[in-house]
């Protein structure tokens, strides 16, 4: 098949995706001109599979990306329906995913669809794969390879349960090790250094001082992501959770907690430090609210600057955080911290959560950090404790090469 044509997005956002059970697929002509065998059935089953994850927006987004990539390859490159793929096809796809065509690569994340004259239309700037940095080669991480195997295996197991196919080609791959590298130890957690965080926070404070109406919100977002280890999805309104000011609650002993629903649709309480409580007071006062929320207060936690209600787009939060990263990087560069400024260019929103956990685990019992972070076990929290790594490096630091 020709790869000259750039594929279009196959699935919209969770909020815009139609219920495939109520609106079954009748055609895929809007996705591609030539429908391969069983294309409509393929798309119907894929839509139902994705829709089943509507209770978990993060999982939905991950599964949508992987299923979409695979269907692009299966339909456009291999010219096969999902039920025709075998073990060797999955292996061929993984090889393809390591080096996708240049015209399938974008330089930045953009929305799949955009609003135009009241209708949702394809975004011509969208590409299936995104470069980590412009003008750099595309490199697939090991976690991305693991996601391919994990999602596709779940998908094919689902198709077996639906009696659409009779075997899972992913499970038939016996030597996944040729695609997945094993490591001797856990990779270091990707996080900001103390210097980088001070500049990032300083950038947010500068924005808030210069334009309080817009950027007091920016400062509060940065503080909440760091101090309460929030995931980006825990700040926005979703079908499963609408974060409000009333989610800050005071117990009978006068301690403040923040209640949220996170990964896996699990509710948890996060202990709120005095510094975070002061950040909340500043933010609320900038919005002409009382210093502390009343029990059950329904005011959106992160308000829209235009219109009513709370922010619903994680992309908007990412843009706000990136503005602080960019400002911090620029200032660090000017003040001579060239190397750390360069490293900051790779930072993502999730690094703030990692940074907050890593700082706290130095001083707090790991069980307390574990529960605030919503980790399933202490073993996950232990990954943030790098004392052993520091000691290991210190013992090797003065090793000689030349005999004394």
CATH topology label of the largest domain: hpI Integrase, Chain A
**Outline:** globular
CATH architecture annotation name of the largest domain: Orthogonal Bundle
Strand percentage lies at 5-15%
H/I helix tally: 13
Distance between the termini: 65 Å
Biggest β-sheet description: 3 strands, antiparallel
Which strand order does the major sheet show? 5-6-7
The tally of structural domains comes to: 2
Q: Classify the helix fraction into a percent range.
A: 40-55%
Total strands: 7
* Series of H and E elements: HHHEEEEHHHEEEHHHHHHH
Low-confidence stretches: none
Mean of residue pLDDT values = 86
CATH homolog superfamily of the largest domain: Intergrase catalytic core
CATH level-1 class of the largest domain: Mainly Alpha
A few lines on this structure:
This protein is mainly α. The chain is 43% helix and 6% strand.
């Amino acid at each position: 098949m020709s790869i000259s044509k750039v594929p279009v997005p196959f699935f919209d956002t969770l909020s815009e995706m139609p219920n495939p059970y109520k609106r079954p697929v009748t055609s895929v002509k809007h996705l591609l001109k030539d429908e391969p065998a069983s294309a409509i059935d393929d798309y119907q089953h894929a839509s139902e599979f994705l829709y089943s994850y509507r209770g978990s927006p993060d999982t939905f987004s991950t599964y949508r990306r992987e299923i979409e990539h695979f269907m692009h390859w299966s339909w456009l490159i291999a010219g096969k329906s999902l039920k025709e793929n075998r073990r060797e096809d999955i292996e061929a796809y993984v090889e393809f995913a390591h080096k996708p065509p240049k015209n399938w690569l974008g330089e930045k994340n953009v929305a799949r669809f955009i609003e135009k004259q009241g209708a949702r239309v394809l975004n011509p700037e969208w590409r299936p794969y995104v470069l980590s940095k412009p003008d750099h080669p595309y490199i697939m991480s090991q976690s991305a390879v693991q996601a391919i195997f994990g999602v596709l295996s779940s998908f094919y197991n689902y198709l077996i349960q639906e009696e659409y196919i009779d075997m899972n080609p992913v499970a038939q791959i016996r030597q996944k090790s040729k695609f997945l590298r094993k490591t001797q130890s856990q990779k270091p957690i990707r996080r900001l250094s103390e210097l980088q965080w001070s500049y990032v926070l300083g950038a947010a404070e500068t924005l808030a001082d210069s334009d309080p109406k817009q950027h007091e919100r920016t400062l509060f977002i940065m503080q909440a992501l760091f101090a309460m280890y929030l995931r980006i999805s825990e700040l926005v309104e979703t079908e499963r959770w609408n974060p409000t000011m009333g989610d800050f609650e005071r117990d009978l002993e006068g301690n403040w907690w923040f209640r949220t629903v996170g990964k896996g649709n699990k509710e948890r309480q996060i202990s709120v430090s005095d510094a975070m409580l002061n950040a909340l007071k500043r933010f609320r006062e900038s919005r002409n609210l009382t210093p502390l929320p009343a029990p059950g207060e329904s005011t959106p936690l992160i308000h829209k600057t235009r219109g009513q209600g709370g922010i619903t787009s994680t992309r908007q939060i990412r843009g706000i955080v990136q503005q602080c990263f960019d400002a911090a990087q620029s200032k660090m560069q000017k003040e001579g911290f060239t190397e750390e400024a360069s490293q900051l260019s790779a930072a993502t929103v999730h690094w703030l959560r990692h940074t907050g956990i890593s700082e706290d685990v130095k001083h707090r019992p790991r069980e307390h950090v574990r529960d605030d972070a919503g980790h399933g076990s202490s073993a996950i929290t232990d990954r943030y404790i790098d004392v052993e790594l520091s000691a290991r490096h210190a013992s090797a630091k003065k090793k000689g090469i030349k005999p004394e």
